Amino acid sequence: WTIHINDLSKTSALIKTFLPIIHHEDSILFINTNLICNIVSCCGQIHTQFIKKIEILQKRAIRIITKSHYIAHTDPLFSKLKLLKLSDLYKHQLGFFMYKSINGQLPENLASMLKRTENVDNHNLRNCNGYYIQNIRTNNRKFTTNYSGPVFWNTLPQQLRNLEQ
Known about the structure:
By secondary structure, this protein is mainly α. The chain has helices spanning about 1-20, 25-40, 50-65, 75-80, 85-100, 110, 115-120, 145-155, 160.
């Protein structure tokens, strides 16, 4: 991933170079295609340290596009441009994956990775309508979808989890 991130860091230099020539909307499209789309498909397997580096690159690119100061807060800039940060995009995709799991819209090989708590234990638990969180032995396993998906879903408020249909 280090080589891939170094290649992505060249993107912000390209944006800075071509910003006077291209339109504002085109520069946003350029960020989305080069920074975001290249990594979203593998995002569940990326270690947190790499996500932080990529978010820094994303924030740098947003500041360049909006011609903001290099230490300006980026939350208002993301809101203004109606874009999601990488971590928010990851949470959105993870939530969508879990939503599809609940509604039986996943392929069988993916659906079989996730187990509901009610199907695992016969005990009356507080989180009986949540997902079973597997015990893991390695830190790398924390970044897989079959662990991080149930953890994320079980932390959502009950009102959101009840929106199953």
